[in-house]
Every structure is written in C-alpha cells, then in structure tokens.
Give the backbone structure.
Amino acid sequence: MPGARYGLAQTSATAGRLDEFSLIEKYFARPVTRPDVSLGIGDDAALTIVPAGYELVTTVDVLVAGVHFHESADSHSVGHKALAVNLSDLAAMGATPAWATLGLVIPEVDGFWLERFCAGFFALAKRYEVDLVGGDTAQGPLTVTVQLSGWVPQGTALQRRGARPGDDVYVTGRLGDAGLALMHIDGAIVLSPHQATAVQQALDYPDPHVEMGDRLRSLASAAIDVSDGLAADLGHLVTQSEVGAKVLLAQLPLSQSYQAHFDAIGWEVALSAGDDYELCFTAAPGHHHEITALAGQLDVAVTRVGTITADRNIIFVDRDGHGYRPETAGYAHFRS
Ligand code: ADP
Ligand code: MG
C-alpha cells in the first residue's frame, strides 16, 4: 500500500537505505516449505489450500511498542512473541497452524533489529511448520501485527462455549510469572537474579501449547488461552458457556519465584496480570485420567483448579475457605 499520498513517509524514500521491496526480499521472502502453499510472498496475495473436510481458522494479534513490549526489548523476543501469541490462540481452538502474514510498521530500517526479529520469528515458525506467506511493510511507530491461519476438522474446534456444570477446570503451565517480570521491570518488586531470569523467560518467550490444544479437541468441553489473566479469561469462558465456576486458589500453579514473593503479591498477579499464554480448559470428570496421561506424554504441567457450576458467576476460594474477589479485572485496553 502507498503511504506518501496520505502524508506518511515511505520507507522507499529513504535514500541510500534498503527500500521497502529490497527489505522484504532480504528479510522476509523465504522459500515456501509447505505443500499447501501454492503462492507465497511476491504477488498481490497468497494462495493456500485447506484440506477437504477442514475449516479455516484465522486469528490476528497486534503488538505495539511501549504497550505490548518495551521499545528497547530484544527484537528476537518480539519476533518470537508476535507469532507465539497467535499460536496460542490457535491452540485454544484445537487448530493446526499453517500460514502467517506479517504487518510490520517500523520507524526506520535497522538491519540489526530486523535480523534479530527474523531469527526469533522464523525459529518458532519452523518449529510449528508455519510458512510466512505475505504481509505489509510501512514506516511509522513500531508495531508488529501477525495474522495466523490454520485448520481444524470441520465442526470439532474447541470454543469458549461448551463447558457444563460439573466439568473440571484446568490450566496448563504456571500463572503469574509474566506479570511478575513486568513488576520487576517497573521496580515494583525486587527479584533475585535467578528469579528475574526465570520470569523474564516467561514474559519474552511464551511457549504456545499447540500439541496440547490439538489433543484436547477430543477431551475438552471448552477452552480459552490465558492472555489477560485467569480471572478475566475464565470469565469469558463461563459467560459464553452460560455457566459459572468455583476456583480453589490453593490449587493455582505458581512457580517457585512466585511463591517466594507470595506475601507481597498474593493471588492477584496470578489471577489478573495476564501475558501468560497458558490454556484454560474444561472437561468432564470422566476424562481426568486421560488428561493426566496426556500431560505426562507432552511434558506439560496441567493442573485442575476448580469446577464448573450452574450458578453463573466465578467464586475464588482461598485456603481458609473464604471467598476472594480479584482487585483488578485483568488487562483491558481503554480502561482508565
Ligand atoms: P501490495 O502493495 O500489493 O500490498 P506489497 O508491495 O506491499 O504488495 O508487498 C509485496 C509482497 O511482499 C506481497 O506478496 C506481500 O504479501 C509481501 N510482504 C510485504 N511486506 C511483508 C512482510 N513484512 N512480511 C512478509 N511479506 C511481506
Ligand atoms: Mg504494501
């Protein structure tokens, strides 16, 4: 798309530097690896083939510098995370990822930044056999938008709706570490170097549960990925399922770093900070053994944290059996 006509500077106007097309050629136009990509980068649009009997699943996430990542963050982690958050959305649908497009807005052509960004992005893409099939590049405030598509056997996608009273509520991994890392960066809490490294990894390199999502299609009744905090995201799941939930806080999976600072942060960071990219899902109690076996097989921690109720609200119960109300409602843009 042109920009100059609307008063925006174009990357191609930067004399002596890579213009938009050389930049795409140098960094993003890589050979197609998937047999279902008939046409990748280089034309006006990409052509991909969805297998017969499958539905196309599509998601997009926008990462704005200063909002979703630090302006000074290593672009390797930005590249990883921009794809990881989308993989996490597809995982929560039980879908198999396949094709990505990248909308890249950069203030200037910084070769080092782009190299690192591509290294992070393409390493994760390779791991999940995702091809980058197109995108758009423009000059402006640093913003990374990745759109990811994949597929799922028709009619079998996991959704936020579908949880039934009596189902168990599970979460993968650990909750709150990314939030803890942000508090550390902001100086709101002081972590030991070892703790800081551990939680920074959770913030910068979320590990999407793609295989788990795929295998949960036959076991889970509903699923969502935890991007805004368990309280908010389980809230979306129960609202769409027209049910409620009772969560036992003592069951929440908290890392050693988190537990070491529990007196200062309590349950709040685990419930409301967000950026965890774990899966929260529900399943009939009869599937408990299979879910435990699957967790072992995939080497992913899966913890049962509560139960779905017919009563349409979420109750958090602390160790003493008292109800607990989260102080913040999870991350939401535009909230003052
Ligand atoms: P158009 O102007 O028709 O939208 P562009 O000139 O912007 O096309 O892009 C040329 C080709 O490069 C297209 O195939 C587009 O999908 C691809 N492309 C542009 N930017 C990126 C990017 N950041 N990552 C991957 N592919 C890109
Ligand atoms: Mg363009």
